[in-house]
C-alpha cells in the first residue's frame, strides 16, 4: 500500500490503492485546504518533493503548467503510484503552515443582513485572486484614515469563489464597527488584509470536539465547524452558544441545517438575559452565565478537544470552568477591545 509522507514532520499516512491523497489524509484526520474536490479550484495544491502520482484531470486555472513543472499537484485528484509520495505539509511539529497574508485585496460587499439587534452579517467576494486561509483565522477590515483596520474572524469555511462571511458587532463608540454596520452597503468595495491568527487547532484531532462561543465569537467557531463536518469529521461535535436572549441566537437557518445534515452535530443554547414570558420551548436551552452553567450541564469534557471564542472575560471564565471539571486540550480565541472596536486576537492554548 502506498504511503504519504509529510515533510518536514516525517509523519506517514497509508493511502489505499485507488484513493486520492486528500481522501487518505482526511481519513486519518489530517486536513488539507480544499473546496471543489474535483480539480477546478486549486485550493489543495501542494509541492510534491519525491515520488510519482497520477494527477488525474485538473483544470489549468487550478494548477498551471508552470506549477506542474515545479512539482506541484492538486491532492483532491492525485493518486500515488510510487510506494512513498512525499509532500510539503506543515511544520516540524506537524502543525499547518499558515498562508502568507496579503494586503489591500479588493472585495465587493455582495450581501448584508441584520442577524440580531446588535450583529450584522457581511458577505464579501474578491475582485482579485481569493485569499487562502485556514478555518478559524481572521482578516482585517477598515478604510484608513477614518476607519482603522480591525480584526474580524471569518464565519465560513474556505470557498472556491473566495467569499468571506463576517459577523460584525455594533459598537456605539467603535469607529470601524460603526462604519461597517451603519454605512457599508451592498455593492461597496472593501479592502481586506489577511489572513492572520493560529486559532485552527490540531488538524490531526482524533477526539470528540466541544465548541463554546459567546456573541460574535460564534464566527470562528462556525468556520471550524463547517470545515470539519464538510470534510467528514466523524467524532461528535457539540456547539454550546451563549446568547443574551432568543433574539440574539444566529444564524438559525445554518445551525438547523447542520443539525439535520450531520448526525454527529449538536447545538446547545444558553441565555443570560432571557425575558420573562418569552416562549423558547422549541429548542433546548439553559439560563445563566455559561461558565457557571457548565458544571450542571450533561456535557462530558473527558477526552475531548475544546475550542472557546468570545470576549476576553468570557473565554477566560469558560476556560477555567472547563479545566476545573476535567483536563482537556483547550484552544482559545479571546476578542479584545481595541480603541472602541471589538477585535479578535488569536491565541492557541
TrEMBL record:
The UniProt entry, under InterPro entries, shows:
2Fe-2S_ferredoxin-like_sf, 2Fe-2S_ferredoxin-type, Beta-grasp_dom_sf, Cbr1-like_FAD-bd_dom, FAD-bd_FR_type, FNR_nucleotide-bd, MRET, OxRdtase_FAD/NAD-bd
* Coiled-coil residue windows: none
SUPFAM superfamilies linked: 2Fe-2S ferredoxin-like, Ferredoxin reductase-like, C-terminal NADP-linked domain, Riboflavin synthase domain-like
Q: Which PROSITE patterns match?
A: 2FE2S_FER_2, FAD_FR
Task: State one Pfam family annotation.
Answer: Fer2
Q: Could you list this entry's UniProt keywords, alphabetically sorted.
A: 2Fe-2S, Iron, Iron-sulfur, Metal-binding
Q: Where in the numbering of this chain does the 2Fe-2S ferredoxin-type domain appear?
A: 2-93
Question: CDD domains this protein is in?
Answer: fer2 (cd00207)
Q: Which residues form the FAD-binding FR-type domain?
A: 102-202
Which cofactor(s) are needed, names only? FAD
The source's domain of life comes to: Bacteria
Name of the protein:
2Fe-2S iron-sulfur cluster-binding protein
Amino acid at each position: 500500500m502506498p504511503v504519504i509522507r509529510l515533510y518536514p514532520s516525517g509523519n506517514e499516512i497509508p493511502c489505499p490503492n485507488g484513493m486520492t491523497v486528500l481522501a487518505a489524509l482526511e481519513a486519518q484526520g489530517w486536513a488539507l485546504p480544499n473546496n471543489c474536490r474535483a480539480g477546478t479550484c486549486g485550493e489543495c495544491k501542494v509541492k510534491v518533493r519525491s515520488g510519482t502520482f497520477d494527477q488525474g484531470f485538473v483544470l489549468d486555472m487550478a494548477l498551471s503548467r508552470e506549477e506542474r513543472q515545479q512539482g506541484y499537484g492538486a491532492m483532491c485528484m492525485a493518486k500515488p503510484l510510487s510506494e512513498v509520495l512525499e509532500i510539503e505539509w506543515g511544520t516540524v511539529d506537524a502543525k499547518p503552515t499558515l498562508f502568507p497574508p496579503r494586503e489591500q485585496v479588493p472585495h465587493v460587499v455582495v450581501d448584508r443582513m441584520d442577524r440580531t439587534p446588535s450583529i450584522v452579517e457581511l458577505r464579501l467576494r474578491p475582485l482579485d485572486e481569493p485569499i487562502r486561509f485556514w478555518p478559524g483565522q481572521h482578516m482585517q477590515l477598515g478604510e484608513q484614515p477614518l476607519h482603522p483596520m480591525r480584526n474580524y474572524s471569518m464565519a465560513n469555511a474556505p470557498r472556491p469563489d473566495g467569499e468571506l462571511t463576517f459577523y460584525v458587532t455594533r459598537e456605539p463608540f467603535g469607529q470601524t464597527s460603526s462604519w461597517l454596520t451603519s454605512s457599508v452597503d451592498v455593492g461597496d468595495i472593501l479592502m481586506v488584509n489577511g489572513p492572520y491568527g493560529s486559532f485552527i487547532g490540531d488538524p490531526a484531532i482524533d477526539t470528540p470536539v466541544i465548541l463554546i462561543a459567546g456573541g460574535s465569537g460564534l464566527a470562528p467557531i462556525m468556520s471550524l465547524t463547517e470545515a470539519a463536518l464538510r470534510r467528514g469529521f466523524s467524532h461528535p461535535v457539540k456547539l454550546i452558544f451563549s446568547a443574551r436572549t432568543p433574539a440574539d441566537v444566529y444564524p438559525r437557518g445554518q445551525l438547523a441545517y447542520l443539525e439535520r445534515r450531520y448526525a454527529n452535530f449538536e447545538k446547545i443554547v444558553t441565555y443570560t438575559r432571557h425575558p420573562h414570558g418569552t416562549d423558547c420551548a422549541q429548542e433546548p436551552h439553559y439560563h445563566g452565565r455559561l461558565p457557571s452553567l457548565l458544571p450542571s450541564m450533561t456535557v462530558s469534557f473527558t477526552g475531548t478537544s475544546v475550542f472557546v471564542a468570545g470576549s476576553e472575560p468570557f473565554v477566560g471564565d469558560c476556560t477555567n470552568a472547563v479545566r476545573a471539571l476535567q483536563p482537556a486540550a483547550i484552544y482559545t480565541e479571546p476578542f479584545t477591545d481595541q480603541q472602541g472596536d471589538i477585535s479578535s486576537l488569536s491565541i492557541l492554548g
